[in-house]
Amino acid sequence: MHVKEGLTFLHKILTPYKFDVTILADRGFKSVDLFKFIDETLNWKYCIRCTKDLGISIDGKSKIKKLDDIIPTKCSTKYFYNVKLTTQEYICNMAVCKAQEAKDVWFIANNIYEPYAIREYKKRFDIEEMFKDFKSNGFNLEDTWTNDIHYAKMLYFCVCIAYSYIISLGVSCSKDKKNNLLGAVKSINRKKVRIYSLFTTGIKWFKRAYYSRRDKYHLKTCFTIYQG
Predict the structure, then answer these.
(1) What does each C-alpha distance from 224 to 171, 172, 173, 175, 227 come to in angstroms?
(2) pTM of this structure
(3) How far is the C-alpha of 203 from the C-alpha of 184, rounded, in Å?
C-alpha cells in the first residue's frame, strides 16, 4: 500500500515532464500486484528481481515450473517473453543472468521488449551508492531533527547541489591526476586502479582544502560538465 502511494505521488510529479521512467527493485518488492500496478496503472517500465521459488509457465518448456528450474548461461543472459507468473498467470518478460564468479542467479521480471533488462537493473547499485553517500557515507541526511516537510525539501535540495559539486571535485581529481595525493589509487598487477569512488575522492579533497592545506589543495568552483 505504501509503495503504491509513493509511486502514485511520483507519477503526478513526473508525468508533465514526459520522462521515460523505469522502476528498479530487489527481491523484497517482487509482487505480481505491484508489477500490474506499474505496468497498467502508471504505464511505466519495471525491472524487478524475483526469488527463485516463484512459479512460472513458459510456452514450450513444460518442465519449468518455477524460476529455479531455469538453467542460466554463464556470462550471458537468457530472455523469455510473455511468460506467466504464479497462479495468477500474470504475463510479463523474464531475464535470467549469472555472472561468472557469482553464486546467485538474477531473475529479473520486466516489461521491456528489448534485451536491456539486466543493463537497466544494474543501475540500481549506482542509485543505492548515491543513497549511501547522502546518508552514512557523507552527508548524514538521516540525522536531521526536523519534522517540517518544507525544511526537509530544502535540505534535500541543498544536499543534491552539494552532491553534484563533490562528484565534480572527484572527477577533477581524476582528470588532473591528483588521486595520488589522496591515496585514491592503488597498484594492482602493475596497473593503477582507483579504489575510491568519485564521491569519496571529492569529499576527501574538499576536507583537505577546507580544513588543512589551503595553499596546496585548491577548490574549483567552475566546471564544464561532460560525459567521458
Answers:
(1) 11, 10, 14, 12, 10
(2) 0.75
(3) 12
Distance, CA of 85 to CA of 66 (rounded, Å): 9
What would the grid cell of residue 54 be? 516463484
pLDDT of 170-192, one tens digit each? 888 888 777 777 777 777 777 77
List Cα–Cα distances, 208 to 53, 107, 214, 222, in angstroms.
51, 44, 8, 19
Start-to-end CA distance of the chain, whole Å, equals 41
- DSSP assignment of 42-86: S--EEEEE--TT-BEEBTTBTT--BGGGS---BTSEEEEEEEEET
What is the number of residues in the chain?
Answer: 228
- Alpha carbon of 57 to those of 74, 89, 195: distances in Å? 23, 8, 44
State the Cα–Cα distance between residues 199 and 215, nearest whole angstrom: 23
C-alpha cell of 197?
569512488
- pLDDT (tens digit, 9 = 90+) per residue, 7-52? 999 999 999 999 999 999 999 999 999 999 999 999 999 999 999 9
